[in-house]
């Protein structure tokens, strides 16, 4: 393998030939399944942990749940580079805004910052983001900013390539007024189902609960994920 | 400035597809098949009450998805071939035979055809059986979903399916699955058709749109 890599580098840097594996030329994408659920007093967010370059899994323990502020997170799907860059920019803008305000920022503000960036650069970006968090004015909130740059608040939202497979599960199993533990259980199940069916989702399930008190993170390892009987 | 895109409506030139959601499930003593009823040509719904559960024999049905023309043609050909076959053997054909006939056509013409049929029925040798024939393979499964709407309900069926469900449980499972898929997939909708096949025969049922189960956002 080392011989192939060095032979590749010594040749013309722009040629694409067999000395460099195919995946080294593919874009890095967070294939992914992400979701967020509101409950009375906060939100629960969840994501899988697989990052792919083509068919190669570049990172099998990715953390797609990114803090934007103390009580505001975003779940990233689409191009890993694009979503990291946008999240970094919004983190900066929100931190500055919060200092100006001398107050913790609103989740809606964070969501609108994401929306403005994703809409302005919609042709260049490939980013589907779910913004979720808690603030004093409106409690737990989930805002989805899919590709294209629209924004809508939803009590429950799923995103990423794996989300297609769990719309039916989400519609039938979500009930308004669930507790934090019920939301965590619902997210774990939904992520497990999506990871089972979507080749671009997998690894471990990362979850987080955000409330007034703060943040509580959990990881459900592969072998601990719920299994379903038809296989 | 154009007042009209063209003098001819779009749906006259678009391919007619049964966008669709189809499902079939085995229970002890028979099968239940279900489908939506939407047929689209581009953005237009050209038939909102199409029954996509097609009879292949008295106790063998198939569920159609993909190109409407291709799927209907395959079903009609197999219906004919099964009639001949059942006369030759002198008794009701096996479900596996029907599935094999569908598979043979799907595989031989796989480059030209774009249709996926799920074959399900009852015979005295094997009881209730469900076969998938996607892309020309042949595989028996305890249950199967297909069509564009099926993507949205893989999670739901994986979570809800249990072995050894009763006939009524299976019917409810099919209705719930169709309803969820129809509310998420733009190419599925209309009414839900159900067919329950057991030793006694096949029973067809139609559930209107407003009688389907609804979920938290409806």
Automatic annotation (TrEMBL), chain A:
Quaternary structure, from the entry: The 26S proteasome consists of a 20S proteasome core and two 19S regulatory subunits. The 20S proteasome core is composed of 28 subunits that are arranged in four stacked rings, resulting in a barrel-shaped structure. The two end rings are each formed by seven alpha subunits, and the two central rings are each formed by seven beta subunits. The catalytic chamber with the active sites is on the inside of the barrel. Component of the immunoproteasome, where it displaces the equivalent housekeeping subunit PSMB6. Component of the proteasome complex.
GO MF term list: threonine-type endopeptidase activity
Family according to the record: Belongs to the peptidase T1B family.
Taxonomic lineage: Eukaryota, Metazoa, Chordata, Craniata, Vertebrata
GO-annotated biological processes: immune system process; proteolysis involved in protein catabolic process
Location relative to the cell: Cytoplasm; Nucleus
Cellular-component GO terms for this entry: cytoplasm; nucleus; proteasome core complex
Name recorded for this polypeptide: Proteasome subunit beta
Gene from which this protein is expressed: PSMB6
TrEMBL record, chain B:
Subcellular location: Cytoplasm; Nucleus
Keyword NAD attributed: no
Active site: 20
GO biological process: immune system process; proteolysis involved in protein catabolic process
GO molecular function (one): threonine-type endopeptidase activity
Catalysed reaction equations from the record: Cleavage of peptide bonds with very broad specificity
Keywords: Cytoplasm, Hydrolase, Immunity, Nucleus, Protease, Proteasome, Threonine protease, Zymogen
InterPro entries assigned: Ntn_hydrolases_N, Pept_T1A_subB, Proteasome_bsu_CS, Proteasome_sua/b, Proteasome_suB-type
PANTHER family, per database record: METALLOPROTEASE TLDD (PTHR32194), PROTEASOME SUBUNIT BETA (PTHR32194:SF12)
Function as written in the Swiss-Prot or TrEMBL entry: Component of the proteasome, a multicatalytic proteinase complex which is characterized by its ability to cleave peptides with Arg, Phe, Tyr, Leu, and Glu adjacent to the leaving group at neutral or slightly basic pH. The proteasome has an ATP-dependent proteolytic activity. The proteasome is a multicatalytic proteinase complex which is characterized by its ability to cleave peptides with Arg, Phe, Tyr, Leu, and Glu adjacent to the leaving group at neutral or slightly basic pH. The proteasome has an ATP-dependent proteolytic activity. This subunit is involved in antigen processing to generate class I binding peptides.
Membership in a protein family: Belongs to the peptidase T1B family.
Name of the featured protein: Proteasome subunit beta
Origin species: Oncorhynchus kisutch
């Amino acid at each position: 393998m080392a011989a192939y890599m060095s032979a590749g580098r010594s040749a013309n840097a722009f040629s694409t030939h067999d000395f460099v594996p195919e995946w080294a030329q593919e874009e890095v994408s967070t294939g992914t399944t992400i979701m967020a659920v509101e409950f009375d007093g906060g939100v629960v967010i969840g994501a899988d942990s697989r990052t792919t370059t083509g068919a190669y899994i570049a990172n099998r323990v990715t953390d797609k749940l990114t803090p934007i502020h103390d009580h505001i997170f975003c779940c990233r799907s689409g191009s890993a580079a694009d979503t990291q860059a946008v999240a970094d920019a919004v983190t900066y803008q929100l931190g500055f805004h919060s200092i100006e305000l001398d107050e913790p920022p609103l989740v809606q503000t964070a969501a609108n910052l994401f929306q403005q960036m994703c809409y302005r650069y919609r042709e260049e970006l490939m980013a589907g983001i779910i913004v979720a968090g808690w603030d004093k004015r409106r409690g737990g909130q989930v805002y989805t900013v899919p590709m294209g740059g629209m924004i809508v608040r939803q009590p429950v939202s799923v995103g990423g390539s794996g989300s297609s497979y769990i719309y039916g599960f989400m519609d039938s199993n979500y009930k308004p007024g669930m507790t934090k533990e019920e939301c965590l259980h619902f997210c774990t199940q939904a992520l497990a189902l999506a990871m089972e069916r979507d080749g671009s989702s997998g690894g471990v399930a990362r979850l987080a609960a955000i409330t007034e008190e703060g943040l509580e993170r959990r990881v459900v390892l592969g072998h601990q994920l719920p299994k379903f009987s038809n296989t | 400035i154009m007042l009209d895109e063209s003098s001819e409506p779009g749906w006259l030139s678009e391919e007619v597809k049964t966008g669709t959601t189809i499902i079939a499930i085995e229970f002890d003593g028979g099968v239940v098949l279900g489908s939506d009823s939407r047929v689209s040509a581009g953005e237009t719904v050209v038939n909102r009450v199409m029954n996509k559960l097609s009879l292949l024999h008295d106790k063998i049905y198939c569920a159609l998805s993909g190109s409407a023309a291709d799927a209907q043609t395959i079903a009609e050909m197999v219906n004919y071939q099964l009639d001949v076959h059942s006369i030759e053997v002198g008794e009701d054909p096996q479900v596996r035979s029907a599935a094999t006939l569908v598979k043979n056509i799907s595989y031989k013409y796989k480059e030209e055809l774009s249709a996926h049929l799920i074959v399900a029925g009852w015979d005295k040798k094997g009881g209730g059986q469900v076969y998938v024939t996607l892309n020309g393979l042949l595989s028996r499964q305890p249950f199967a979903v297909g069509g564009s709407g099926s993507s949205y309900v893989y999670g739901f069926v994986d979570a809800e399916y249990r072995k050894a469900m009763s006939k009524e449980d299976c019917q409810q499972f099919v209705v719930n699955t169709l309803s969820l898929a129809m509310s998420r997939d733009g190419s599925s909708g209309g009414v839900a058709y159900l067919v329950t096949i057991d030793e006694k025969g096949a029973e067809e049922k139609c559930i209107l749109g407003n009688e389907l189960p609804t979920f938290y956002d409806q």
